[in-house]
Peptidyl-prolyl cis-trans isomerase (Arabis nemorensis), 142 residues
Amino acid sequence: MGKDAKAGGKGKGKQASGSDEAAPKGKGKAGKAADGLGTCTYVKARHVLCEKQGKINEAYKKLQDGWLSNGDKVPPAEFAKIAAEYSECPSGKKGGDLGWFPRGKMAGPFQDVAFNTPVGVTSAPFKSTHGYHIILSEGRKN
């Protein structure tokens, strides 16, 4: 797959702006990324999980043919149909719906992609310790 699934995961830490008045009170972790990605505490997502790369690529091709290649976002109901058909995760029966989950709950690459995919956007296929995934980000909150 040559593409790296991490979308700009670097650059945590120092933020070179001196505007303190916009900083949230209390918790010191917020406000890392100006685009709002990577700063939320919870993400709501759907996913497709396949053990084999060929099967996840087949599912992704359906998403591309229907929406992504036109520059359209995949409607959650349509993503759910693909998840029900292809996903090998128990969540597949619920259209791949993982609900809201906090940072730290999901394994490495899955968390990185889930917390860096903008709401409404479908990730490219990527590998984790569980197999191959596609994520549809449905929401984020602190």
Notes: Confidence is low (pLDDT under 50) at residues 1-34. The domain at 48-141 is CATH 3.10.50.40 (Chitinase A; domain 3). The helical segments are 53-66, 76-86, 108-116. Strands lie at 42-50, 97-102, 126-128, 131-141.
